[in-house]
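User: Hey, quick favor. My workstation is busy. Could you predict this chain's structure for me?
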Amino acid sequence: MSNINNQTQDLYSIEAVQDLSHESAAAISGGADLELFDDDNFGKPLVQTNDGTGNVGNDVNDRITSIIVNAGVWRFFTDSEFRGVSADLGPGRYPNIGLGILPNDSISSFQRIG
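Assistant: No problem, here it is.
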């Protein structure tokens, strides 16, 4: 029970204002599982997301250079629709994917695998 402004109310009886998707909640709270950047060392943010995509779109295609994985394991592909050369990345900071992960500026799709 809570007592706010001299009104007693069971906290479990309060209706949710809005149900949010995992993606929306991450955007609002800043808790994205995956962050993608245009430059090395996390310069020029491109995307913060909790969802994969079969095609990153023209604004992001072949521009990803650094990645932060905050949660989960993600598979990145050089071609759209989850094709081409791929690499799996777990939680961590990857300041330059061109250093042994995938060729720089080559990611066209990605998906969460774990």
